[in-house]
Amino acid sequence: MQPRDRQALLKLFAAYYETADFRIPGLEQREFGIGNIRKIEARHLNFPNLQSFRGYLTNNTPFFVSHSTAYYEFPGATPIQKKAWKGADLVFDLDIHAEGKYGPYALLGQVKADLQRLVKDFIINDFGCRDVLVAFSGNRGYHVHVRDKAFLPLGGEERRELVDYVMGNGLNYRDFFSYSDKKQLLGPRPDEGGYRGRFARAAMELINSKPTAVSRVFSKEKERGFFLGGVRQGNWSKTSLKFDDLVGRLSPLAATLPVGSVNTDAGVTQDLSKLIRVPNSIHGETGLIAKIIEPGEVDRFEPLRDALVRSSERMKVRFVEGVPSLELGGETVGPFKTGDEKELPRPVAVFFVAKESATLL
Amino acid sequence: MDEGLDFAVKYPFSDSARKSLGDIQLTERIVELAVERIRKAVRGDDSARVVFHESDKREEIASFAAARMILGHLRNSYLTNRFAINESKIVRGRINKEDERTVDAVAAQFGIASAVENGMMLLDLPTYLRYSVRDPHYKLINRKLFSGRVEINAEEKKRLVEEAVKKHIERIPTVKDPPDIIKNAGKQLVAEIPKTEVRMTVKAGDHPPCVMRLLESLKNHENLPHHARWFLAAYTLAIGMGEDDIVKLFAGAPDFSEKITRYQVSHIKKKGYSVPSCATVMSYGLCCAVCRIGSPINWHTLEKGRKDAINAEADNAAKG
């Protein structure tokens, strides 16, 4: 990135930070990390209060700012063993991997669907967590921060267990089924907790809405009703299908139950000293806000519309590479070719400059 | 709550035990009992000692505290792990004979508080995660979960208590400068540690990260869950290691028994069990890297550069 572009972006970021809405419980117990080229170039920073943190961001504005999920007795101490770990938020990182610089943005809708299931079905319904904060990551995914006191002391192995659970690692739905003495096929009931109940409910819904997706025999209402009546009681035998055949036909359904886009490669959830982007800070690679999404707003949230730093000003840029057309700031922009010179709304211009696809004129 | 002296003798980690000690002085007799308590653990003798007189009972309780002092001073992972396993087994034997109220009183020492609702015994999820063992049966994915609570049965509750006792003892606080009788007792115990030479002539990269981690654990005398041992045995057989060498590998386990190990290794060999796939290893909770090789055995077909890259990435993830 040109030094001139860099300076201009930092000035805009600094102005945003003067009034940014931060919600960082236990701020003084957290370690902070900042970076300009890479995401974390300096860590072990700590701040006594929000005011001093804000002061730092407006005076020494970085491209990236992260805080520890952990709470420490001495957040600034090094090495890490001397910090005296006291607990950590339980975090989940959902993201999408796609080809090309602009590939992921078209797929953010899929991640959002996973996000909603993760929060509602898993984190709230199954795990019973309270105090859950959801934020856009600022680029190609979402972060979920669980700050429920009961979960803060969990160790890495225990968090790994929760990741395995949401990802469905080790899930074998065939184990849900067994035979009774009377050779009946016994299976999960819709009112059961965990994957068993989820599987039964999903199967019932599928058979009700698209019976032929499982088998033609369920297109007859009588046969369908008879079967589903049994399933409600955990008896999956009330069908003319062979039992093995029935269970086999439900295999594609089992594959839809876990949340696929939770990022486990980097070990985000089980890492007890992880630094994660500060919610409502700016992601320097996009100029987008890692925006906090209020409960109930996830449905309506569109990152490329709602996570821009608002401004009515316009800026002139020259594109240094081709860019496909995108939904950005509530309108369709582009495509642009190398050498195109355009006057764009400031948030849109910032996005392309931060992506290093354009340079300011 | 004070459950009385007999409860305190049986469960010497309890609040009642701490209270019953009062300002008891450390005596040679108590340290002697403590040393014997640790020796029993090294022998794997999990029979419970029975005492009748009130003063004996107090000494018995104090011997547990003194044993912890010795171990906290020594910081010897072999002795600590043997002690933790043995004491938790003794406790398990005891609670198996108790009524439910007493089991709950022991469980309460570790914050394990189950509640019965609609005929189901429920335990809160964080506590369940803390004390459930790494075993497919206890894997969350196979459990019934109801908004933050896991259904368990009475037998499983006892298993969780056993694990809680073990974890409690493993986390012994360091004792910096203990009285001389504790130091001397420690010296004596260290001298008695059976000299089992653990054959560990493996280099990083010889085996996939999941196997390396298990070998490392054995070297540190950590206790491996059943499935981890099974996996390691099947794997080492598959790469052509001899039975004798495999048995020696397990000598580092804190509850090592040559007879049982030999029997199990040769059983796996006789049955010709194949090495579990990566997916299965993952379901055991033992996968710790992203190799994308389908089966741990395929590690040996990888080029060196690829192995190094996987190891570097796994190291990074571990360090954060």
Structural features, described:
The complex is a heterodimer of chains A (361) and B (320). Chain A is of the alpha+beta class. Chain A has three domains: 3-166 and 262-305, DNA primase, PRIM domain, CATH 3.90.920; 173-255, no CATH class; 310-361, Ribosomal Protein L9, domain 1. In chain A, 30% of the residues lie in helices and 19% in strands. Chain A has ten helices and 19 strands. A four-stranded antiparallel β-sheet of chain A has the order 2-1-3-11, with no helix packed on it. A four-stranded antiparallel β-sheet of chain A has the order 6-8-7-14, with helices on one face. In chain A, β1 (32-35) and β2 form a beta hairpin. In chain A, α1 (3-17) packs antiparallel against α2 (50-59) and α5 runs antiparallel to α6. Chain A is globular, with a radius of gyration of 25 Å. In chain B, α3 (28-43) crosses α4 (54-74) and α3 packs across α5. Helix content of chain B is 57%, strand content 4%. Chain B has a four-stranded antiparallel β-sheet. Chain B has 15 helices and four strands. With 320 residues, chain B is mainly alpha-helical. Chain B is globular. The longest helix of chain B is centred in the first third of the chain and has 21 residues, at 54-74. In chain B, a hairpin with a 2-residue loop joins β3 and β4 (149-152). The model of chain B has no long low-confidence stretch (mean pLDDT 86). Classes of the chains: A alpha+beta (361), B mainly alpha (320). At the A-B interface, α3, α4 and α5 of A face α7, β3 and α14 of B.
